[in-house]
Amino acid sequence: MADSVAKRARARSRRLVVAVDVVVLTVREGELDVLLIRRLARHRKGEWALPGGFVGVEESLDDAALRELHEETGLDLDPTHVEQFRAYGDPGRDDRKDRRVITVAYLAIQPFHTFPELSAGTDAETATWAAVDEIIDGRRPLAFDHAQIVKDAVERVGTQLEYTALATAFVPERFTEADLRTVYEAVWGLRDEPLDAPNFHRSLHTLKPPIIEPLLQRRAGVRGRPASLYSASRWVDEEGPLMRLERPLAKRPRVDEQLELPETQASRAAKYKRRPN
């Protein structure tokens, strides 16, 4: 009884605050990366974490997410490409004794080949891109519950890739089929077991409405013929990359909704197979 009373007293003494954390994903050199900062704030100083911080009293959640991202990394994103995807409110997620922190997590996509220079500031000592696999398998620990937030964001994107045109948000304005295919392989952990290129080509060019449009340009390669270049279709530009496709462009077998940590890229890749003809 005494313990219960003391526990309630401690709970009442903690003030409730709201924070935002931003998961920015991209594909670099064929692997899925996430934007991280090294904390400069006194609490958990020196630990890796997602960009984020507390919401001002007169500030909206969306404005707070964009502000914290800019202040801690120097990155400015189009607000239409930043999606609120989940709230995290476990009483023990933040171990500060004077407050209970509820965070609202945001998800954003940074196209590859267009990396702006990162510039850490305010509560961040440095900002960098890090491999998602390093977080999932525990090689790069994150502060608080940020590893779980990253895992949830990656699972969300993996599901959206199957049923929407979200892959077009990862690529630059002009891209090749290989660029688009690499997005699926990176997010789904298929780097060592790539998608079948001919099947992907047929599926991509028979989608209705189409998600890509050919350009009268080619990208010169190191070997072989220059690759054809494409842009996102007018339908994607008008409706947005999260509009649902008539059928999946590429298919992955069903997996458990919650992935267990730690999990390596190799073990994840074993869950996915090439799409059948």
> In CATH's first tier, which class of the largest domain applies?
Alpha Beta
The H-and-E topology, N to C, reads as HEEEEHEEEHHHHHEEHH
Total domains: 2
- Biggest sheet statistics: 7 strands, mixed
Roughly how many Å is the radius of gyration? Answer: 21 Å
* Quaternary organisation: single chain
Low-confidence region ranges: 256-277
Shape: elongated
CATH level-two architecture of the largest domain: Alpha-Beta Complex
Number of strands: 9
Terminal CA distance: 65 Å
- Estimated structural class: alpha+beta
What is the helix content? 25-40%
Mean pLDDT: 86
Helical segment count: 9
CATH topology of the largest domain: Nucleoside Triphosphate Pyrophosphohydrolase
Output the CATH homologous superfamily of the largest domain. Nucleoside Triphosphate Pyrophosphohydrolase
Strand content: 15-25%
Provide structural commentary:
The chain is of the alpha+beta class. The protein has 2 domains: 2-158, Nucleoside Triphosphate Pyrophosphohydrolase (Alpha-Beta Complex); 163-269, Orthogonal Bundle (Arc Repressor Mutant, subunit A), CATH 1.10.10. 30% of the residues lie in helices and 25% in strands. The protein contains 9 helices and 9 strands. It has helices at 2-13, 61-73, 132-136, 146-163, 167-170, 177-187, 197-205, 234-239, 265-269, and strands spanning 15-28, 31-39, 48-49, 52-54, 82-88, 99-109, 124-131, 212-219, 227-232. The strands form 2 sheets. Strands 1, 2, 3, 4, 5, 6 and 7 form a 7-stranded mixed beta sheet that branches. A two-stranded antiparallel ribbon has the order 8-9. It is elongated. The model is unreliable at 256-277 (pLDDT under 50).
